[in-house]
Structure formats: C-alpha cells, structure tokens
Amino acid sequence: MGYLVTDNKKITTKRIREMKRTGEKIAVLTSYDYTIASLVEQGGIDMIHVGDSASNVMQGNATTVPITLDDMIVYGRTVARACKRAITCIDMPFGTYQGDPYKAQENAVRLIQSTGIDSVKCEGGSEIREALELIIRAGIPICGHLGLTPQSIYQFGTYALRAQEEAEAQKLIDDAKMLEEIGCYALVLEKIPATLAKRVTESVGIPTIGIGAGAYCDGQVLVVQDMLGMNMGFKPKFLRHYNNIGEQIIDSVNHYVEDVKNGFFPSETESY
Ligand code: KIV
Question: Which in 29, 57, 129, 130 has the greatest CB count within 10 A?
C-alpha cells in the first residue's frame, strides 16, 4: 500500500465528503482493468474512476461517444475486483441516461449490479436532473460532471476551455448547486478556468474534482495512461507526466525482439 495511506478502511462517499470538510485533497485516477487498478490502489489512491475515456484509451476511438453500456460493464467488473480500499466510480456512457429518466435508472442499476462498482458519474446539469434524481432514489451514489463534457463533443465541436463567458459560468455554478441539492456526493470539473473552479468549490459543500480546472478544486483526476506517459502524443497543458512508461515499453519490446532474433532468449537457465 502507498506510503501515504494511514489506514486500509474502505473509502465511502461519506469519507469523500468529509475530506472536503477537513481540507484533505482527494487523489483520483482512472483505471479500466484489473492489473492497472491493483497497482493504482497499491499506490494509495483515494478513488478509481472507470472512465468512458476507455473508448479512446482502450478501444482507439476518437471520442467517448461509441462506448456502450456492455463495454463499460466489462471494464467496471475487472476494476471492482481489484479495489479493496479506494472508492470506485464508473461513467454512464453516452445515450444511457440523457433520454427517458426511468431507463436511465434501469441502466444505472444494471451498471452497479453487474460490476460491483460503488457509484456512477453522469455528465451534465439541469437538463438531466430528473434522471439523476431517480438514480439517487434507487440508492446509487452519483458524481456529477460539469464544464467540458466530452459526450457532448458533437454539440461543442471542440475540446477547448469551457465557461469563459459569464453566462456559461453562472449556469455551471447553478448546476453545481443543483447537483449538491439533489444529493450528488462529488463533482468533476473539466477544463474550465481555475478562477471559476474556485468559485464553484467555494459555492458547494460537496467536493470538486478537477481535470484541467486548476489547483483550487478539492481533488484532482487524471487518466492513468496519460500521467504515466503511455499516450505519448497527448500533451495538453493540464497534464503532468509522472513517468515515461510508453518509451520504456517500446525500449523493452525492442530489446526482446533483438534477443529473439539473435538467439539470446531464452538462455539455458530459462529453459527446462
Ligand atoms: O472518462 C474519464 O476518464 C473521465 C475523467 C477524466 C474524469 O471522465
């Protein structure tokens, strides 16, 4: 377990909310499979998010739009098996909660019941309020997501910084307050000005988890492959590389290919 971890007690939504009150920053990373999730948990992470970014990272799609509920169930199941301490959250994929609110509730129940993940995340504010209320009424904790909401990429037309105009900023603050009021336990803020993230963070009692939203949020989230340097072409301003695993994998594969071609692998001690 990570050296910063002081206890092995399962992290709950209550504890996540308490962390805001006590000023303890919340560290979140994505994971989509058992092996990475196990390592991330051993690193002492507070929360693991099974993002629909799996559409890009695991499936090679250009957006998060194509990933399905069945796909997310497969990723979610493997991550849930790895997580003993970290609270887990999973994205409801595009098209599973934006329409009929009762269908949204049914989809959320299926996602939670068939994966063992602790909570769901949905993108959007007032326009999906009814669906969110029904999901919470079913006993499923929700993490909201405002600002850049990648499932709406075809509406935005760009992944540029959101809410630079006061009208959009004010709607975002109103939506954040609404998400708190209906019972969401946390809120992701993606790619908005740091000053706006500060206003939101100070306006709500639930923790804000930022990605490209500056240092004033109550926590931070990154896509694990991005911060490990596995997605080498992706270098947005908000991303910090904590390693260069991509280069290390390529070097290791090069070395292996060389050894096989030259007959250096396996050696006698590696043979039966
Ligand atoms: O899909 C995802 O990975 C996310 C996080 C980055 C918040 O939504």
Answer: 29
User: With a 6 A CB cut-off, is 208 part of the ligand 1 pocket?
Assistant: no
From the CA of 136, how far away is ligand 1's center (Å)?
20
Structure tokens at 56: 């890009």
| pLDDT for 197 beyond 70 | yes
53 pocket-lining for ligand 1 (C-beta < 6 Å) = yes
Do 188 and 220 contact (CB within 8 A), yes or no? no
C-alpha 122 – ligand 1 centre gap (Å): 10
Q: Give the pTM.
A: 0.97
pLDDT (0 to 100) of residue 6: 76
| Sign of the C-alpha dihedral computed for residues 51, 57, 59 and 64 taken in this order | positive
Which residue has the CA at smallest separation from atom 4 of ligand 1? 51
Q: Measuring CA to CA, which residue among 4, 5, 46 is closest to residue 28?
A: 46
Kindly give the distance from the C-alpha atom of residue 81 to the centroid of ligand 1, in angstroms, as a whole number.
Answer: 20
**Torsion angle of the four alpha carbons 9, 179, 97, 145, in this order, in degrees rounded to the nearest 10:** -70
Helix (H, G, I), strand (E, B) or coil at 190: strand
Q: Is the pLDDT of residue 26 over 80?
A: yes
pLDDT at 238: 97
Cα–Cα distance measured from residue 238 to residue 268, given in angstroms and rounded to the nearest whole number: 49
Atom of ligand 1 nearest to the CA of 190: 7
